[in-house]
């Protein structure tokens, strides 16, 4: 994901992309810890994509005179995790302990 591509997204799409990537990162960390992750470089790529999105969000907030994390606070409630998360969809739809952990971690940040 390029920073230039992020400029084309709306504020809501940007926040939803960040939340989706955070959920994917948590799932990938669990897979890595249990030796189920095939490509460990995916963790680094996900962290960097999240950082790019957060930078774009913060830039928009500062240009608009908003406080830090204002866009996230505004649009996080409309995020649908099961529809947005494709890599961990089976764990999210089936419930289980992973879904509960991801929901708790994703809601606190």
Number of separate helices: 7
Main β sheet profile: none
Beta strands, count = 0
Query: Could you say which overall geometry the principal axes of the C-alpha atoms support?
Result: globular
State the share of residues found in helices, binned by percent.
Answer: over 70%
H and E order = HHHHHHH
Strand content: under 5%
Span of the ends, CA to CA: 22 Å
User: Quick check: average pLDDT?
Assistant: 84
Helix and strand content put the structural class at: mainly alpha
Q: Would you summarize the structure shown here?
A:
This protein has one domain (3-103).
Defining traits:
7 helices, mainly alpha, 109 residues
Descriptive notes:
- By secondary structure, the protein is mainly alpha-helical.
- It has seven helices and no strands.
- Helix 2 crosses helix 7.
- The two termini are 22 Å apart.
- The model is unreliable at 83-93 (pLDDT under 50).
Topology at a glance:
Elements: H1 3-6, H2 11-33, H3 41-63, H4 70-75, H5 81-84, H6 89-94, H7 96-108
Helix pairs in contact: 2-3, 2-7
